[in-house]
Every structure is written in structure tokens, then in C-alpha cells.
Amino acid sequence: MSVKPTIALITGATSGIGKATAYALADEGFSLVLCGRRQDRLEEISNELSAKVPVHTLCFDVRDRQAVQQAIDSLPEAFSRIDILINNAGNAHGLSPIESADVDDWEAMIDINVKGLLYVSRAVIPGMAERQSGHIIHIGSIAGKEVYPNGNVYCATKHAVDALNKGMRMDLNQYGIRVGAVHPGLVETEFSLVRFKGDAERAKKVYEGYQPLKAEDIADIIRFVVTRPYHVNIADLTVFPTAQASPTQVKKL
Ligand code: NDP
Ligand code: 8X3
Fold first, then answer.
1. For residues 24 and 29, what is the distance between their CA atoms, to the nearest angstrom?
2. In this structure, is residue 12 part of a structural domain?
């Protein structure tokens, strides 16, 4: 079967991997539905990319189940047939041992990285199932494959993403929907700024002394994944910067 996908919805398109993916997919000619909470950034990106491809923006918090459903239901006809869902929105909040971590950080990570991903998926998948085609790409993490000290709950949420990637692939197999995940190691984005609650100095240190991945490196891989012929499903892909061998081993200068 050959299906040419045309509309890609990207969550977390306002920065980092999601934003870079929006630019990469615009280069490929996909129509885009860009999601995030920061309306000003959505507008800025939309203004730039609209010159190339049709763009629609949806401003919502993935934690808000009703808002997620309303946003997907509000899509105008021209954008309502979502062929590709990129479940990218997510962050780490804090890096603390289990006995003293801030429980609000746990709530945020579980609500965004797991429940938010599920809400968006649940709103989008019925249309794909009805059309018997679609492609879901999860942005997991090496933290979903291995655990590191103080990563506890963030790693647990990414292990959940890994499990959901496998589970969705099984459940959606009968509809001919492709499901796969890209699991990056260290990528220099706003990720560490969020993890360390705006402490720019501490965030910068995470990426010092070696060459981390860029958001564009991951976007390039996503571009590759979505442009394979329809019978090819890249199910699971882990990517490190060359300097990294595991979550805890990074060759620094
Ligand atoms: P960024 O902080 O740069 O981007 C995170 C994106 O998620 C933003 O666009 C943000 O948009 C969105 N987001 C966060 N919370 C919410 C929310 N509650 N509702 C809606 N959108 C939300 O980080 P990255 O680009 O690095 O992260 C993207 C994904 O990649 C995440 O899932 C992360 O776990 C994963 N990842 C990152 C790695 C890294 O080293 N950077 C490595 C492995 C995986 P807004 O604030 O506008 O809502
Ligand atoms: C982000 C990569 O190693 O900081 O998922 O958890 S790491």
C-alpha cells in the first residue's frame, strides 16, 4: 500500500526538537499543525513557515484533557486529517533523589510526559483508525531505556513512553498505523533550563566539554523516519552524541 502523508501535528513545537522538526517537515512540504503553550512563539514560527506550507497553530496545555480534545476538535477541515502525530511535548522537572524531590515536579512530569501524550494520542488516533492509515512518532529518551541517579521519575515517565510505543504499535497494527519512537541522548535545547527551573548557568554546564546533539540532528532523523515508504516502520531508534555512551558516561575534554 502506498499512502502519501500530508498533515503532521507536532506537540511541543515552540522550542527544541519540536521546533526544529517543524522546520524540517516544512522543507519536505508537509502541512503542519503546531502545538504548544507559548502563543507568541507559535505565531512567530507559523509566520515564518506559512511562506512554505499551510500551518495551523493550537495553543493548549497537554495536561488539560478537555483542552486537548477541544483543540483537536477545533481543527479546520483542511487540517483535520492528521497523517503524522509527533508526540514530542515533554520535559524533566528537577534532578533530585527520591527521598527529597519536590512532589510537584513528579506530578508535572507524569502529567505532561505520560498523561499528556495519552490525551493527545487518544484525540488523534480514532481518525487514523477510521482512515486505516497514520504514523505516530514518540520522542522518548535514553532515559526510557536506562535509569540514572536522581533521574528516577523522569526516567519512569520515559520508560512509560517506551512501553506505550510498543503497546500502541500492537493495538494499532490492525489499522495499518505505523508507530515508532526516537530516543535521544543529550540534545542541547531548553530541556536543562526547564529541568533546573531557569538556572541558565547550571543548564549550560550540562552541554560543556563535548559536542551534544542539536535539535536539528533529531529533526533530521524524524524527517528520515516519516519519509520512508509506507511499508517501512522504524519502530525504535536510539541516538547519542558520539561523546556519549550511556546516560552516565560522556567523554568530556
Ligand atoms: P524543550 O524544553 O526545548 O521543548 C519542550 C517542548 O515541550 C516545548 O515546545 C514546550 O512548549 C512543550 N511542552 C512542555 N510542557 C508542555 C505542556 N504542559 N503542554 C504543552 N506543551 C508542553 O525540550 P526538548 O526539545 O529537548 O524536549 C522535547 C522532547 O524531547 C521531550 O519529550 C524530552 O523529554 C525529549 N528529550 C529531550 C532530550 C534532551 O537532551 N534535550 C533527550 C531525550 C529526550 P511550551 O512551553 O510552549 O508549552
Ligand atoms: C533527556 C536526556 O539524559 O537528560 O531525556 O535524561 S537525559
1. 9
2. yes
